[in-house]
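Supplementary material to the annual report.
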Amino acid sequence: MSRVPDAALDVAARNPDALGAGRWEGVCRIHDLTPDRGVAALVDGVPVAVFLLSGGELLAIDDLDPFSGASVLSRGIVGDVAGEPTVASPVYKQRFLLRTGRCIEDPSVSVVTWPVRVRGGRVEVAVP
Amino acid sequence: MAPTIVVVGHGMVGHRFLEEAVARGLHETHRIVVLAEERRAAYDRVHLSSFFDGASTEDLALSPDEWFLDHGIELALGEPATELLVHERTIVTAAGRRIPYDACVLASGSSAFVPPIDGHDAAGCFVYRTLDDLEAIRAWASGASAGVVVGGGLLGLEAANAVRLLGLRTSVVEMAPRLMAVQLDDGGGRALRGHVDALGIEVHTGVAVAGVATTPDGRVAGLRLGGGEDAAERTLPAELVVFAAGIRPRDQLARVADLPVGERGGVVIDDRCATAAPGVYAIGEVACHSGRVYGLVAPGQVMAEVVADQIAGGGLTFAGADLSTRLKLLGVEVASVGNPHAEGHEIVVSDPLVGTWKRAVLDDEHRLVGAVLVGDAAPFGHLVSALRTGTAVTDALAMLSPPPVGGAAGPMADEASVCSCHNVCAGTIRGAVDDGHEEVPAVKACTKAGTGCGSCVPILQELIDEQLAASGRAVVRHLCPHFAMSRAELFDVVSVTGIRTFRELVERHGTGRGCEICKPAVASMFASLASGYILDGEQASLQDTNDHFLANLQRDGTYSVIPRIPGGEITPEKLIVIGEVARDFDLYTKITGGQRIDLLGARVDDLPAIWARLVAAGFESGHAYGKALRTVKSCVGTVWCRYGVQDSVQLAVDLELRYRGLRSPHKLKMAVSGCARECAEAQGKDVGVIATERGWNLYVGGNGGMRPAHAQLLAEDLDTETLVRSIDRYLMWYIRTADRLERTATWQRKLPGGIDQVRRVVMDDALGIGADLEADMARHVESYECEWTATLNDAERLSRFRSIVNDPEGAPLPTRVEIRGQRVPE
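Predicted assembly:
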């Protein structure tokens, strides 16, 4: 389901900077983010929900809520299910695992996850 | 053709027979026809006066209409039986139908006894027996200021409560020297009278009724007392008289059919509840067993069971009934056990300060023979158990002042009666819990306990909790997986520890990082405890999106905006501003049910500009996005209305400004009506206020929505200061103790003791927390600020209102289509 091709993820895993040359798009400054809260960013024209967890971890998934069709997942409440970070859609409250994009209430549904990192105080999302 | 059972009368006992018949499968082997005089199916006659305290006819109904259909029972409403032809085994109805029967069950009950005094049939004289009677009383009462009830027994006091609830000055006249002369002794009568006096009901005992005084056009003008030679006559002025001085069995059918009747009426029955005619039974108040007519519902219900069993071929018999009874009259617990007038060794526990009187009488072998309880009926179960087992009492004092169930005196015996209406004992309740019925409604449904007079419901709750605990299934009401405690417990933790960050709270008292359930719940507690702007610092991450953007999320990701319009009162200038803002930002507008205006379809990015215009025009946040006070609806009251008796708009505005921004477990709605016509629909609100000539009546615990609830009357004729103090306490107690997303109606229903407990805590300050609750509310009032004004004055707060972090234009408006002249989501 990932929007980033597997091959590219492999490269990123070995050498994250290999994706950097024009492949990472800066979206905002790290202090534009509130811990345990999301923002929506346009990445290559697609709305992406970027979350900063209180432990410092950055995660990003599609902003589009597949259940309501509205671009709102960045506005959900961040929590955890058995230690795994989640966001709950503010429309009909389905929860999505932030690390995998999978929906807890309906495991047949998942949203795309996006690689995200901080460079020089800027939050960057990988463009597929 | 299937054999036929005809049931004559559909009251509580007749209905109980149907239930017992169905329980034995008789509806599958027999045709069952019910002939009812009233146009309504059976309802709860024991609780008639609750009809004036918010209960609807549906609330009082004993079974839904489908029940009769589902069981193939032919219910003929408004078609009473007119003739019993015992030789032809046929019943004739008012509609002229002739129905041959195999079994006929007479359950026609009784009628009210009206003493043959002068003027007893004047316009304005009523009896108190059916819902139709109550409706007639209500209609007449709207033009009356005082009512007199003749009869100070059980029925008379119920009737007095009804008259009182209608807002009339109420008196009770009783010929006997005390109230409830049959069930109570002198001490009990005195204690009860103290409670009744305190309610403002005038009591006249030991006086005879001479007649009804009338106006020249034949309407009630008062009740004449005394008379005869020894007492001077005097008149109690009143426009309404209710006779509730006794009942007479409605045994006409049997009399005409020449069946034997008792000395004081009632069809004579044997232990099988059979009359002298083959196949004809009689049950309830129309029956006379061993020379006795029982005027209580419980013995009638036992008879109903006996007859159903007899028809089904069983051997159950009726051996007379113990008259032990426990009930709640005018909010006072009253019980009598065995023979309340017995003589013997007396043990009395009495506290005149709180109005309790508890007296037990033992015989020479120290066996209980009778007892009276007023003001505290908690010992009832133990007393009945002692009476039935006939064992010698060793510690009578402890028996009269038992600690709560499960306390040092040990649990109730399994055979101790819990519900005297349905004769259900503690063991049956425990069995139901063991079978998996873990909540009061489920236990009520399967045991019938608590479905009669309802006075045992708090005991049910205790027994259920006790049994769950005993079997290691203690009821846990955890807020969510991150906090192993209920919302009320967590609120106490927050309140007592002073912790005001979620992180500290979850680290010290919970686990994990929280979730969409506990975070907003905790944010709401912080807000209720007046901790400032709800989006500062870490609190921003706790709020759901509505609170986060101070607006209501719609299905397409846009938001709606509702400015506060206190009391629904708005100037033309402000109306114009709302119109202009809606036009300029392309918003759809609609009037809400709470007398305000909803502006829908705003982008996150436009919210600050929209609010800048609204705040500049003098508007404030309406908190439509929060679990908080929404609106205080009002009618125009004395300012314009020909009928208003108080200035309802002024009060509504004052209340809305006092409680605006108050965060609570769920949304709160209020209303103020300027007279009893109730145009503001206050009885459908969490807090409803209705003006009276003398002040304000306060209703609590109503709501519309998915499960509409009628508000219940908490207090009457309050002055404005007392009213506001009572609302302060009510709201803060609710905020402290309710579950998450639990509206006042549910919270109030689940409280052990219900509205009476609310009254004790809010009006009587029984828990001694009144001052605390008021102080909490004072802090809220003090610290209130308009969240939108605060947001607009702070650049950092404003920076949050961006739909797209890397595009200053923000997300485009979702596609719109036009309907009825406005633009809406596709």
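Confidence is low (pLDDT under 50) at residues 1-21 of chain A.
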